[in-house]
TrEMBL record:
This is histidine kinase. Residues 41-258 form the Histidine kinase domain. Residues 261-271 have a biased composition (Pro residues). Residues 1-37 form the PAC domain.
Length: 271
């Protein structure tokens, strides 16, 4: 396969010619294919034995195989935590590869923005409570054509970050708002904020503001890249606004109607 690029040459405003560059991309495509294959094999070969290790550790930690001495229990807890982190990492790698390569299609149906926002808050309630964060949804009922499971994944990812990067006593809110032809979701926190020069970068894979974020907060550095892929596959946009020390607001839009799919009926008024 060959790619080409055309660069116009100008003298002032006058077009005097053009340079066409042809590039043989056979090698690059092959490298990309090998990378995809490598990621897929590694992830699958790692996940199966890891699931089995996690199972055994879980049985031991739960005392199902007899009493574990205090010191051993602490070690087991650390082993369980780290195994869980590895499982999350592998699942995230698999997920992003599948979404970005277009191997998972979004199962778009009629759904409702407020319902998704409330569901996400419910899913995250226990984590927020443990961290001492108050979590709210101020959401309007707005009809949407989207894959509800995937949008829930985006919202829970954003909420989990908001909780992770906020001090105890903070507040996190999800809101929804109708815009021209789209719905705008906001996840607002009062956490540590994100430096201006990192606002775009954090949506790339494995990009973190602080290199210790993954280790200390148990993240994988893939959450926002996954969110971006899902939102873009729906024809929406995602970005962040932030002020250091004051908090961050993650925003994403979803079109009210996806091309080729009829707009859903308006959601009924709550009884
Ligand atoms: P992770 O698994 O590390 O949370 P993400 O892709 O979800 O990976 O986020 C990437 C990085 O962006 C985080 O490690 C953190 O540095 C920064 N970040 C994400 N959300 C927030 C937030 N709400 N407040 C401050 N920093 C954030």
């Amino acid at each position: 396969p060959v790619e080409y690029e055309c660069t116009p040459m100008k003298e002032g405003e006058m077009l005097t010619g053009a340079v066409i560059t042809f590039r043989d991309v056979t090698e690059r495509r092959e490298v990309e294919r090998m990378k995809d294959e490598f990621v897929s094999i590694v992830s699958h070969e790692l996940r199966t034995p890891l699931t089995s290790i996690r199972g055994s550790l879980g049985l031991l930690a739960a005392g199902k195989l007899g009493e574990v001495p205090e010191k051993g229990r602490r070690m087991l807890d650390i082993a369980v935590q780290n195994t869980d982190r590895l499982v999350r990492l592998i699942n995230d790698i698999l997920d992003i590869e599948r979404i970005e390569s277009g191997r998972v299609t979004m199962e778009v149906r009629s759904t409702d923005a407020a319902e998704l926002a409330h569901q996400a808050v419910e899913v995250m309630a226990a984590m927020a409570e443990r961290a001492g964060i108050r979590l709210f949804a101020w959401a309007e009922r707005l009809p949407l054509a989207a894959d509800p499971d995937r949008i829930l994944q985006v919202l829970t990812n954003l909420l989990s970050n908001a909780v992770k990067f906020s001090p105890p006593g903070g507040e996190v809110t999800v809101t929804t708002e109708a815009r021209e032809g789209e719905v705008l979701f906001r996840v607002v926190d009062q956490g540590r904020g994100i430096p201006e020069d990192r606002l775009d970068a954090i949506f790339e894979r494995f990009q973190q503001v602080d290199s210790s974020d993954a280790r200390e907060k148990g993240g994988t550095g893939l959450g926002l890249a996954i969110c971006r892929s899902i939102v873009q596959q729906h024809g929406g946009r995602i970005w962040v606004e932030s002020e250091m020390g004051k908090g961050s607001t993650f925003l994403f839009t979803l079109p009210t109607q996806t091309p080729g799919i009829p707009a859903p009926l308006p959601a009924p008024e709550p009884a």
